[in-house]
Specification:
Structural class: alpha+beta
Distance between the termini: 29 Å
Membrane topology: Single-pass type I membrane protein
Radius of gyration: 25 Å
Main location: membrane
Number of helices: 2
Helix content: 10-25%
Order of helices and strands: HEEEEEEEEEEEEEEEH
Shape: globular
Strand content: 25-35%
Region (Disordered): 254-273
Transmembrane segments: 281-305
GO molecular function: D-mannose binding
CATH topology of the largest domain: Jelly Rolls
Length: 314
């Protein structure tokens, strides 16, 4: 009995500690900026996203921005702007093809412009907002291993320089050898806390192993911008697929939350559990454990009482 109570006590402490950490950051799903299979409704449309160009949709598998053919360009854009102050966008994608030579790549966008085709990985040049480029073809970046993932903040006037793969206006980036054709689901996770930091994590080496590509402080994105994914193939080609998009609004209940006036404070942990009432599953489990302890205590006390009563008769 003592050992059982001790085990329950340890579990209670564990749950309490986990709840305390998880509650630093709350998450609320953004349905308007999320997309899952089968992607389309009964009218073969999407309520929250538009697509165009050479994009094709395989309802049970993927949204293919470009197929493994030359001279293709496709796009997928949210219909509504992303107005959340702090957010996290996790997306599963796949870049693959049959050729030994391949290109050019795909991009993720948080920009004021939307659904406009152009020369920058299938979207317009001189954009205003954030572009993240998954570049699979090396033009002129000596010493850099490709595929290369690069972020650029556009001011609406500056062009992306194809000759040196955007080096002139690079905000941050990382090499990601093995990203193309990975044997595990490849994913990206972009986290933004307004005027605090912008972080991109990638999963392509092992499942559930996230690698930080970059973390940049003091970043300000447009307050009203659209979420988009585009891809482009020229003389070389590849399949560029979007599998799922899962977006969440983030907010901190910590007094030193990262969306306060501080420019250096970061959250201890960003969780992916949905916000629930009364502390979520942690509190539910805690109450359940307490109930079991009380139940066992009552049973032991009742048994002792019956034994004592029987002995008093003799």
């Amino acid at each position: 009995m003592a050992s059982l109570l001790g085990l329950l006590a340890l579990q209670v402490q564990s749950v309490s500690a986990q709840s305390s950490n998880d509650e630093d950051i709350k998450t609320v799903p953004l349905r308007t900026h999320s997309l899952y299979q089968p992607y389309l409704d009964s009218e073969l449309q999407s309520r929250w996203f538009d697509w165009g160009g050479d994009t094709i949709i395989r309802a049970d598998q993927y949204i293919r921005l470009t197929s493994d053919r030359q001279a293709q360009s496709g796009w997928l854009w949210s219909r509504l702007p992303l107005t959340a102050t702090n957010w996290e966008i996790e997306f599963e994608f796949k870049i693959h093809g049959a050729g030994n030579l391949y290109g050019d790549g795909m991009a993720m966008w948080i920009t004021k412009q939307r659904a406009q085709t152009g020369p920058v990985f299938g979207s317009v040049d001189k954009f205003e907002g954030l572009g993240i480029f998954f570049d699979t073809y090396k033009n002129n970046r000596p010493g850099i291993i490709f595929p290369y993932v690069m972020a650029m903040l556009g001011d609406g006037e500056t062009s992306y320089n194809h000759e040196n793969d955007g080096k002139d206006n690079e905000l941050a980036g990382c090499s990601a050898r093995g990203l193309r054709g990975a044997v595990i689901p490849t994913k990206g996770k972009l986290t933004y806390f307004q005027e605090n930091y912008l972080q991109l994590e990638l999963q392509y080496k092992n499942e559930d192993q996230w690698v930080t590509c970059f973390n940049v402080h003091n970043v300000t994105l447009p307050q009203i911008a659209y979420l988009g994914f585009t891809a482009h193939c020229g003389e070389l080609s590849d399949n560029h697929d979007i599998i799922t998009i899962s977006s969440k609004n983030l907010y901190s209940i910590n007094p030193n939350r990262p969306d306060s006036n501080s420019q250096t404070t970061r959250p201890n942990k960003i969780t992916e559990k949905p916000a629930t009432e009364s502390g979520g599953w942690g509190w539910f489990f805690l109450k359940f454990v307490v109930f079991i302890v009380v139940l066992i205590g009552g049973y032991v006390g009742y048994t002792a009482y019956r034994a004592q009563k029987r002995s008093s008769r003799f």
